[in-house]
């Protein structure tokens, strides 16, 4: 509450949690009643945490009529208040997460799922260090076709991608300046920005940190911020996996290492090849990858990105300093040895994605298995085992993956399956344009 006292101009707050699709679900509350959220929490039905992408109840979900659509209690996370600079009136967001009335974490809450994984690491005397890289498009969606917005500087539209182009960044300098200022206000550690391969496509890195929950919070809040702030500048921003057929899609890459109780990176053995522990983690990641694809590619549109030779991995393999591989070990000083996971699209729920990656790596560390040899050369030409190529295949792989049963509570797994099966059923009724309109801002 100290933050609100220091910001008397804030008259309303939002309280919000991420549902299984990563969509913010919450309430608007006058700031003068905010203290009640800290003492008593606020209540949502448990079913709100696994609505479908349209925001509808899941048919036949045990969380709805079977149990009377009962409430859970949502309490503030350790994050506290953050400003919402994309709104006209001074407003604060209070992130919350869900519990049972007796204080038990609700297993169907994706943030609670990630917390459970971090507890497994802590029990093993380990701390994951996590960073995310987010790609997004700035889009003019005012017409029937998506286009790059005109530059606020020149009024002209780019006709193609310009990789690492300063001119492309400078064309939207007012937006990016406001974005970085907002990230500082919200304590989101935004680092380097670059222009990417698609027209109006950019990437911003969030720096490494030893708090996986905060890294996921930052990623979730960053997506909300980018989409909200873009509207203030007269265009849309989208993290959907594949807004344009002819251009590369949006990814969300994750880098991570693991520290022991002395703060030493267990992936570092002083050599360029990394430690045995790093290889065990790689083995766990590869084993869980087919089943985890539904988390990394959660929507119909996600599979338009996962095609060969489109800068997104399709084969299940790993390599040193090779961006065609699903798992890349970047060149670095040995002390900074880390794994880059390159499968996920920008449309993921960051809590589930980070939990799936860290959980699979910990499975590998516990099992002490060895991965196959790292690939050399173009991963698309290696004859590797393939990721599920369709949404239907990914749903079935998720349902039968034993690795995921070690990472996620069975309640979350069943809720997620019901959500995705309902979405795939109704998605068949939509045209490509209707799908694009649905995903443009929801993900």
Instruction: Give average pLDDT, whole number.
Output: 95
Tell me the number of strands. Answer: 14
Could you give me the name of the CATH homologous superfamily of the largest domain? Answer: Glutamine synthetase/guanido kinase, catalytic domain
CATH topology of the largest domain: Creatine Kinase, Chain A, domain 2
Written as H for each helix and E for each strand, in order along the chain, the element string is HEEHEEEEHEHHEEHEEHHEEEHHHHH
CATH architecture of the largest domain: 2-Layer Sandwich
Strand proportion = 15-25%
Concise synopsis of the structure shown:
The protein is of the alpha+beta class and 443 residues long. The chain is 34% helix and 19% strand. It is globular.
Description:
The protein is an alpha+beta fold and 443 residues long. The chain folds into 2 domains: 2-104, Ubiquitin-like (UB roll) (Roll), CATH 3.10.20.70; 117-442, Glutamine synthetase/guanido kinase, catalytic domain (Creatine Kinase, Chain A, domain 2, 2-Layer Sandwich), CATH 3.30.590. Helices cover 34% and strands 19% of the residues. It has helices at residues 2-6, 35-40, 110-123, 166-171, 173-186, 212-232, 276-296, 302-305, 350-367, 391-399, 402-405, 410-427, 432-442, and strands at residues 12-18, 24-30, 42-45, 71-76, 82-83, 91-99, 127-139, 190-195, 201-209, 236-238, 252-259, 318-320, 327-329, 339-341. Strands 7, 8, 9, 10, 11, 12, 13 and 14 form an 8-stranded mixed β-sheet that branches. Helix 3 (110-123) packs parallel to helix 9, helix 5 (173-186) runs antiparallel to helix 6 and helix 7 packs across helix 10 (391-399). The radius of gyration is 21 Å and the shape is globular. The two termini are 31 Å apart. The model has no long low-confidence stretch (mean pLDDT 95).
């Amino acid at each position: 509450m100290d933050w609100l006292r220091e910001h008397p101009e804030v008259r309303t707050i939002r309280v919000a949690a991420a549902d299984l699709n990563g969509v913010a679900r919450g309430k608007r509350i006058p700031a003068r009643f905010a203290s009640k959220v800290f003492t008593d929490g606020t209540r949502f039905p448990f079913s709100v945490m696994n609505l479908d992408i349209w925001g509808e109840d899941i048919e036949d979900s045990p969380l709805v009529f079977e149990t009377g659509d009962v409430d859970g209690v949502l309490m503030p996370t350790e994050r506290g208040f953050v400003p919402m600079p994309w709104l006209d009136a001074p407003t604060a967001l209070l992130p919350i997460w869900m519990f049972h009335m007796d204080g038990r974490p609700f297993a169907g809450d994706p943030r609670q799922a990630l917390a459970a994984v971090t507890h497994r690491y802590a029990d093993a005397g380990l701390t994951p260090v996590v960073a995310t890289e987010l790609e997004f498009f700035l889009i003019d969606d005012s017409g029937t076709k998506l286009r790059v917005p005109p530059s606020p500087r020149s009024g002209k539209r780019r006709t193609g991608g310009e990789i690492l182009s300063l001119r492309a960044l400078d064309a939207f300098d007012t937006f990016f300046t406001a974005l970085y200022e907002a990230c500082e206000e919200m304590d989101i550690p935004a680092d380097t920005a670059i222009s990417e391969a698609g027209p109006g496509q950019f990437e911003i890195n969030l720096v490494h940190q030893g708090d996986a929950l905060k890294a996921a919070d930052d990623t979730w809040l960053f997506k909300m911020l980018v989409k909200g702030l873009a509207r203030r500048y007269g265009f849309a921003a989208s993290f959907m996996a594949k807004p344009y057929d002819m251009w590369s899609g949006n990814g969300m890459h994750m880098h991570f290492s693991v520290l022991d109780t002395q703060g030493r990176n267990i992936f570092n053995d002083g050599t360029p090849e990394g430690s045995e522990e790093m290889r065990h983690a790689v083995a766990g990641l590869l084993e869980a990858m087919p089943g985890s694809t539904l988390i990394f590619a959660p929507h119909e549109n996600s599979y338009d990105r996962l095609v060969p030779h489109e800068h997104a991995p399709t084969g299940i393999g790993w390599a040193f300093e090779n961006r065609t591989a699903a798992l890349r070990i970047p060149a670095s000083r040995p002390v900074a040895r880390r794994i880059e996971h390159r499968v996920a699209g920008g449309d993921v729920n960051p809590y589930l994605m980070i939990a799936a990656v860290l959980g699979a790596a910990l499975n590998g560390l516990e099992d002490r298995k060895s991965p196959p040899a790292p690939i050399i050369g173009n991963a698309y030409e290696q004859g590797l085992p393939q990721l599920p190529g369709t949404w239907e295949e990914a749903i079935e792989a998720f349902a039968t993956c034993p690795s995921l049963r070690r990472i996620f509570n069975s309640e979350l797994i069943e809720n997620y399956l019901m959500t995705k099966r309902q979405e795939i059923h109704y998605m068949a009724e939509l045209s490509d344009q209707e799908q694009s309109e649905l995903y443009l801002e929801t993900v």
